[in-house]
Amino acid sequence: MAGRDIVVTDQGSIVFKEEADNQLTQVSLKASAAMASDFNILLPVAKGDGSTQQVEAVTTGDNVVLSFANVGNVGMAGYNVLKNASGDGSTDDTNTIITAINNSEGAGLASQPARTIFPAAIYSASGISSCFETSSSAKNYWLEGAGQTHTVIKGRSDVILIAGRAERTFVIKDMTLHGNAQTAVMLQINSAPYILIDNVEFRGGAKAIQIQGAPRVIVIKNCRFADMTVAGVGPMIDLTGLTADCTVIFENNYVSGGTPSSAGAGTSGLQVSTDASSKSARCFIRGNHFDTLGKTSGEGSVKLLNAHDSIISDNIFTNVVSDYAIKVSSSNGVKVVGNSVSQIASNVAAYTAIEVDGDATNCSGIEISGNTLVGSGVAAYGITCSSSSSSKHVQDISIHDNDIEGYLMSIYLNHCKVQIGIERNSIRGSLAGLSSPQVAIKVGNIIDAANIAFEGNHFEGVANSAGAFYFDRADGSTQTASKCHLSIKNNLCRSMGQKASWTQAVDGDMALIHVRGHASYEITTIHASGNRYDFTSSVAGTYGMTIQPAGTGVCTFDSIMEFGAINGSTSPDSTMAIARAQLAAGAGGEIHVPTGTFKVNDRGAALRASTSSVAA
Questions:
Q1: CA distances from 206 to 153, 164, 183 (A)
Q2: Is residue 63 pLDDT above 90, yes or no?
Q3: Is the alpha carbon torsion for 419, 279, 384, 372 positive or negative?
Q4: Whole-angstrom distance, CA of residue 371 vs CA of residue 374
């Protein structure tokens, strides 16, 4: 009856009012017209803390207010645990809490369950389980405290709460669960159709939540996971035991682990999965802050498996200490949008900010957009979409409008097909720290037919930057000889190719954009238009684009400037760009040379050196 008024009136009236927000029950005596004034009595319903006056009466005029001296002990309507529990932080309150939950089952309207209220106190308990029904006759459960840090249930030696089957709803809110340095799970829910965990703080332990079985909806919001002292025991929020289709809402939470003392000793964050690819855990993960999470060379902040049509949006990831911040596996229709990843730990070398893999089951319909990824110079990959097996793939990929800075390779795609879009991304400070080819974006091993759009991207180089984009139709694996169409349009490469080792001996060619086809696996059509280059600070010999002649079909382009030719008598040497345009056009093709002056120096020596070092 939270928030409702019950009015009994004759000439005057009596109003019983529960104010859920203020945690007060008020009885108002309303006077008739003949009486001079009203009388209000505020009735607290919780037990005092024993250290001060329990009930305090304050009179102002005709009003008398009864309250506790310690307002933190004001209670709420429902079955009050403090009726029998000590709440002193040391006495074992496990059995009294179990009794209170049992008694609340029939204390509501029409013998339905009432809320089990935990007024402000510290309850020492563990193994709270026998009160939760496991049969089909189970009741609903609603456990409510007075707020984080006010109501504290502190573990003793076991799982704090083990909830069995609930008929419809299991709710726990407004309290702190303290693990007391135990390795057991703090809150374990074996099955309930609808689960709500709201405004609960989890601290001082290892695994905070474990939910398994066949719930329909799980909502975890406004919670705080911090000061976890026991590490290396798996995900802090473990939803990997789901056995049916489920919707998971995880929003506005703060999840913090700790820096691992040794490899594998960290605490990973949220993991969600079902037990079969035919069952989907549809997740909405938004507005959370994930900090200092993951096991070194192990699990990371967020991992989804069989999570079709999920959305991961507007989250913040800081101080990542694992192999990834976000990982999505064997899932279709997933959007990763508007997230921020930064402060990668210096001891993480094989790190990926956003990883999509189809290793077990193919993935399709992936959108990664509007994310800000800062690699801090130590992280390997910004975004990857790949499969380790040529029999699996990721298809229909859109990677657009991301801001990626300071990664050894910003975007990597492998074993992909159908529609692939890499568009309007800002790539800054790419460090080219991986093995050849040293580039910011690499796409290889296109399976079956594919349309690839590499358009509108902006590359801004630094001292260790090398190439911008490397496309290889078949990079070492057996592929099908289906049609492949590539569009390279409106990209800007500024001050790329600065790294001292950016030479022909390392990468075979010094083109910022490198396209390779193969005789058996042809790139059917290639179109280049509107691409621009600024070779300020680039190593001598750097030029715009190369398209290897073998394994390419029809190639069209606006002019020699698509390949990096620069107009002006003092401009860099345009020999390679002009020669590459000629090779791309092929016999009988056409080359457009705009009006202007293009500097030519070496008469093709660099071209011969380049083509002799790379197998066409």
A1: 15, 21, 6
A2: no
A3: positive
A4: 10
Cα separation of the two ends of the chain: 77
Amino acid residing at 362: N
State the angle between helix axes of 605-613 and 575-585 in degrees (0 to 180), rounded to the nearest 10: 60
Residues 195 and 250: their CA atoms lie apart, in Å, by: 12
Contact 454, 413 (CB under 8 A): no
Contacts of 588 (CB under 8 A, 6+ apart): none
Average pLDDT over residues 525-546: 91
DSSP structural state of residue 95:
H
Backbone dihedral region for residue 86 (phi beyond 0: left; psi -120 to 50: alpha; all else: beta): alpha
Max Cα distance, the chain (Å): 112
Long-range contacts of 603-611 (CB under 8 A, 24+ apart): 603/575, 604/575, 604/579, 606/504, 606/541, 606/575, 606/576, 607/575, 607/576, 607/579, 607/580, 609/504, 610/504, 610/508, 610/509, 610/510, 610/546, 610/576
Q: What is d(CA 187, CA 174) in angstroms, rounded to the nearest whole number?
A: 14
* Upper half-sphere CA count for residue 258 (Cβ side, 13 Å): 17
Residue 257's nearest CA partner among 207, 193, 305, 213 is 207
The pLDDT of residue 389: 73
Angle at CA of residue 152, ends 127 and 139, nearest 5° = 50
CA torsion sign, 172 to 174 to 180 to 182? positive
Run of H or E including 260: none
Contacts of 278 (CB under 8 A, 6+ apart): none
What are the tokens at 540? 């001598």
451, with CB counted inside 10 A (0-12, 13-18, 19+), is middle
Distance, in Å, from the CA atom of 353 to the CA atom of 317, rounded to the nearest integer, reads: 9
Q: Can you tell me the distance from the alpha carbon of 356 to that of 381, in angstroms, rounded to the nearest whole number? A: 12
Name the token pair of 218.
């799980």
Distances (CA, A) of 343 to 279, 303, 373, 434: 35, 19, 10, 20
Query: What is the spatial distance between Cα 421 and Cα 367, in angstroms, rounded to a whole number?
Result: 9
Q: Which residues contact residue 44 at a Cβ distance below 8 angstroms, ignoring those fewer than 6 apart?
A: 24, 25, 55, 66, 67, 68, 73, 74, 75
For 312-360, the three-class secondary structure string (H helix, E strand, C coil) is: EECCEEEEECCCEEEEEECCECCEEECCEEEEECCCCCCCEEEEEECCC
Q: What is the mean pLDDT of residues 146-151?
A: 94
Q: Is the preceding omega at residue 193 within 30 degrees of 0, hence cis?
A: no
Q: Is the pLDDT of residue 611 over 60?
A: no
Those residues whose C-beta lies under 8 Å from the C-beta of residue 453, and which sit 6 or more positions away, are 420, 421, 422, 423, 487, 489
Q: How many residues does this entry show for the chain?
A: 616
Mean of the per-residue pLDDT values of the chain = 81
Query: What are the start-end ranges of the E strands in 352-509?
Result: 352-357, 363-369, 372-374, 381-386, 394-400, 403-405, 409-423, 426-428, 439-455, 458-460, 467-472, 484-489, 492-494
pTM, full prediction: 0.84
Q: Which residue type is seen at 153?
A: I
- Spatial CA neighbour of 38 closest among 65, 62, 67: 62
Place of tokens 């079985």: 213
Which DSSP string do the residues of 96-135 spell out, in sequence order? HHHHHHHHHTTSSGGGPPPPEEE-SEEEE---B-TTS--S
Q: For residues 548 and 557, what is the distance between their CA atoms, to the nearest angstrom?
A: 15
Task: Tell how far CA 340 is from the center of its chain.
Answer: 9
Q: At 583, which helix (H) or strand (E)?
A: helix 575-585
